[in-house]
Amino acid sequence: TIAECGIADYKHKGLLLEITFTNGDTYEYFGVNANVFKKLVNSDKQVRFAKRFIYEAYLYRKSKKGSVPESA
Asked: What is the pTM of this model?
């Protein structure tokens, strides 16, 4: 699950936050403002911040399926 994966990359444009995880999956989070994005970028523990303030707080969709195989 995304809660168990690290963040590999992220992009923010307007109110859309796109997060690519270490397993290769990419999710889009809708309605994420610049202030929340800045807090994510500046957080020393980005995964923990995202779990607490982004993953369940915003409407999201899986936009790309990863090509990196998950460990069993």
From this structure: 0.85
pLDDT of amino acid 6: 93
The domain locations on the chain are 2-63
The residue type at 61: R
Amino acid at 65: K
Contact 35, 43 (CB under 8 A): no
The answer to whether 65 and 32 have CB atoms below 8 angstroms apart is no
Using an 8 Å Cβ cutoff, are 18 and 10 in contact? yes
State which amino acid sits at residue 53: F
Q: Long-range contact list for 44-48, CB < 8 A, 24+ apart?
A: 46/7, 47/6, 47/7
